[in-house]
Amino acid sequence: MNNFTEPPSNGSFERLEKGLAISLISINALSSVVACVLNFLIIATFIKTSSMWTPSYILIVSLAFSDLGVGALVQPVFCVNLFATMKACPSLFDMSSDITQKSGWVLVFSSFLTITAITIDRFLALNLHLRYQELVTTQRSLTAVIFIWILGLSGLLTQWFHIAEIIYPSVVATLVILNITLMVKISRAVSKHSATIHAQEQAVQGSLDLPGYKKTVNTMYYIMGTLAVCYVPVVSEKIISFVIKRSAIAWYLTYTIMLINSALNPVIYFWRIQDMRNALLQLFRTMPCCQQQH
Predict the structure, then answer these.
(1) Out of 35, 135, 183, 200, which could bridge 262 as a Cys pair, Cβ 3.0 to 4.6 Å?
(2) Are the CB atoms for 25 and 83 separated by under 8 Å?
């Protein structure tokens, strides 16, 4: 299999320059720690705060789990892979490449599916109005998350079936197009509501908390923008590799940028979502070490 989660190996072992390898190892190690700590805090905050057990937060926590997986598994193994290329250890390179490839594909695919589900959730909240809470329930969101992870694990089929190598990248491309389409529709609808807010103030407020909704949409802009910044380089590198020989240096650089996304997502959530910040502070206050200080 040859996809953007797989280190380049054109039948020969390509060694990385020591300074570059150490720099990339340091960046990935730091990003790994940040991703693990912040995504763990999101998950812990969700578990301890019953008011956050809503469909929207369930999807955010699902994304936090995939980002935690990247920080706890993919990036540490990727550091081993970088070390192997620096020291020219083919056996260690092959083992770490296999783990990076399989776990990376499952988690990346799950992330794309989850982000798409979050976008769909925001689209439904805008269009269903009062029926949103009736139709989009916690149980249905949990079912959607389970389905997302089953689909994510099915990405491993690309290891054994060549047709899957075509199907799954096509699905990812379709998800990207779907996200862009829905975000455009959401933006237009929000602009329309904002333009008529004075004339329809009571009707809009009765069906939708427009200021709060606009804030969640803006958060989605940050998430989607960060996703694009982190993923476009590695996808571009893959496309270019069809034309010219794949460069190990280019792949390791772009793959590192892609993995950093898992550390940036929780930063955006804690920055943009006040309820999550407040819940985290409340969680800290209930910790024994904090209670003893008071």
Answers:
(1) 35
(2) yes
The C-alpha atoms of residue 277 and residue 157 are separated, in whole angstroms, by 39
In terms of average pLDDT, the best of 88-97, 163-172, 243-252 is: 88-97
The confidence score (pLDDT) of residue 204 equals: 46
Residue-wise DSSP of 231-279: HHHHHHHHHHHTTSPPPHHHHHHHHHHHHHHHHHHHHHHHHH-HHHHHH
- Dihedral of CA 52/55/56/61: which sign? positive
Q: Give the whole-angstrom CA distance, residue 157 versus residue 169.
A: 12
pLDDT of residue 147: 94
54 φ/ψ angles, rounded to the nearest 5 degrees: -120, 160
Residue 114 CA to its chain's centroid (Å): 8
Longest Cα pair distance anywhere in the chain, in angstroms? 69
Sign of CA pseudo-dihedral 266, 271, 53, 294: positive
Contact residues for 42 (Cβ-Cβ < 8 A; gap 6+)? 60, 61, 64, 266, 269, 270, 276
Token digits of residue 88: 């020219």
